[in-house]
Amino acid sequence: MSSHQKIEIDTTLLTRYLAGEATPDEAMAIDDWLKDDSHATELEHMQQSWQLIYGGVAYEAPNENREWAALEVALYAEKKHGNKLRLVIRYAVAALIVGVLFGAGLYTYLQYRIPVWQHAVAEAAGSVRKGLLPDGSGIVINRNSTLQYAADYNEDDRKVLLQGEGYFDVVADKDRPFIVHSGTLKIQVLGTSFNVKEDSVNTVVAVTTGKVKLYTAKHELIVAAGQTGTYVKGTEELLLSNNIDANSLSYATGDFSFQDMPLPEICRHLENTFGVKIILNNEQLAQCRMSAHFKDRSLTYIMDILSATLDIEYTINNNIIHVSGNGCN
Amino acid sequence: MNKLINPQSAKDIYRQCFQDNFERLHRYAFTLLQDNEEARDVVQQAFIKLWQKRDEINLELAGRAYLYTTVQRQCINIFRHNKVRRHYKDAILATHQEEYTDHQLENRELSNRISAAMDALPPKCREIFRKSRFEEKKYAEIAAALNISVKTVEVQMGKALKIMREQLADIITISIILIAYFK
Fold first, then answer.
1. B106-182 fold
2. Smaller CB count within 10 Å for chain B: N or C?
């Protein structure tokens, strides 16, 4: 079918590739050849030797999910400023559909008098999901959580319904407030990023940029960047604290910042972000403390650093990690 | 109805194309640029362009070739542009050499072994390898400078890597573990 299938893979070609000399056809031929695992290992070893002998930067494979999320955001921005004619057609189609939806929505509303909600991202209890709302606002939904948006989203306002935990990066639009419904609590924003975590006792809203308003039928509270607002369900109180726990957002941001932090606390953050269970095999391990910062690192990478630094060992089996070692004093 | 709001099929094929090719394209771009971040940007841009041209390009049949070609072109442009910047940086490093010696001391053992292995290369092979590594010359530039064919440069570079890997087999294994920890 294509010419590159005839290209022979040998040391000379692989060296060309590592030296940044491969043509697109050669690169494709090599990538086809890499589908064989033993070939992939061969190239990996060669690339590592190359790095060492030749000097220079170490290769790091990108995180595909994060790259896909970034691409989707970029595509949405492109669509916004894209081809005019295509836009007109799209609006025409959208108008038609909005008409139908409006009819259907009105019917449902009159029937049941409740808002119509639709799921923003596919439901999958076991994984973190990223997506975009119709206005381009980015969302990251944690495990065991769901997010739905109103059928009239982006008309007069932007209403979403959250169960569990979600991170929001809201596109600024002062004419259409963005409102998160989390049980009886409502959170209103104009354009900002923040995290909402709801459990049976509290709803915790951590704001990373901008400003949001929390309100119930009785109270309201403004929470600014770097602050956390907590809604206590039992007493219906709204509380403000002047910090945010960046590590609790790492499932969405990929950022960990440990400041002289006890190992059990580090493990709790890793568990929450990576959906694993970490068991410390003896009590002395709880005495270990560490300072480190990780950005977009894999769990095994972080565990490798932990074990090298604290002189501990770990095994991973079915999402359960056992940590052993002499502990720290 | 949903299909009209969200043309699922085109997006699905596009997503598949992304999953099949993103990481490999990134590695390819990295070989051309020697920069992880820049490689990421170039590949992202190529995917955006592909999406913009999805009406003209058949994603399933021609998407992949389009991506590889676009990535290579963009990388070559960036590489040319960066060469100036890199030379400037090298000049600065050279003038502040003392500040870097401490760091380099740790690597002395390693670089001694590498220089020894390089010295052990056949003369012609060594000359070509040096031009590539220390002068950051492309194959075509080396061929022109030494008045030999590009094919000869290719073969000699392959040979240089092969010989040096054998010579350094013992430290390569150790260093790979160290690189994994400290990169």
1. Arc Repressor Mutant, subunit A (1.10.10)
2. N
Q: How far apart are CA B92 and CA B85, in angstroms?
A: 11
Q: Who contacts A219 (Cβ-Cβ below 8 Å, separation ≥6)?
A: A236, A237, A238
Map out the domains of chain B as residue ranges.
Answer: 8-93, 106-182
Of all residues in chain A, the one with the smallest CA distance to B164 is A53
Q: In chain A, which residues have their Cβ closer than 8 Å to the Cβ of B132?
A: 19
Which residues of chain B lie closer than 8 angstroms to A64, CB-CB? 19, 22-23
Give the distance from residue B49's alpha carbon to the nearest chain A alpha carbon, in angstroms.
Answer: 10
**B68:A19 CB<8 A:** no
For the segment A223-248, what is each residue's pLDDT rounded down to a tens digit?
888 899 999 888 888 999 988 888 88
ipTM of the complex: 0.81
**Higher confidence at residue B177 or residue A237?**
A237
Q: Do B51 and A78 touch (CB under 8 A)?
A: yes
Per-residue CA distances from A4 to A27, A201, A236 (Å): 9, 60, 66
Which among A53, A71, A74 has CB closest to B161? A53
